[in-house]
Amino acid sequence: FNRKFVLGLRETEERFYLLVKESRKYRDASLNCRLRGGTLAMPKTSSLNSLLLDYISQAGLTGVYVGVQVQSKDLNGTSSYV
Predict the structure, then answer these.
(1) CB of 29 within 8 A of CB of 54?
(2) 38-51 burial by CB neighbour count: b if 16+ within 10 A, else e?
(3) Which entry of 44, 50, 51, 74 is 20 to 30 Å from 67 by CA?
(4) Which UniProt keywords apply (predicted)?
(5) CA 30 to CA 67: how far, in whole Å?
(6) CB neighbours of 56 closer than 8 A, spacing ≥ 6?
């Protein structure tokens, strides 16, 4: 990893979280994650959300991209995520 762009790496029991300080648009940030074999972080629990918030705060960042999952209803009433 290039230290010029990478702020740090945090490991949990299940995943690694990489903070990159290089400014990017959402699409580019997502592509960068995929090229490294990952995805944008998508916290699904309050404990993971807190962990990531602490990690981001400790790094001194004020804006970051994370993955988002929005539940919507199709015309036939079926729930789906985008």
Answers:
(1) no
(2) eeebeeeeeebeeb
(3) 74
(4) Lectin
(5) 8
(6) 19, 64
Q: Is the pTM of this model over 0.70?
A: no
CATH topology of domain 6-68: Mannose-Binding Protein A; Chain A (3.10.100)
Do 66 and 40 touch, CB atoms closer than 8 A?
Answer: yes
Helices and strands, number each (H, E), in the chain:
2, 4
Q: What is the mean pLDDT of the chain?
A: 72
pLDDT of residue 79: 43
d(CA 74, CA 21): 37
Q: For residue 52, count other CB atoms closer than 10 A to its CB.
A: 19
User: Of 37, 52, 20, which Cα lies nearest the Cα of 29?
Assistant: 20
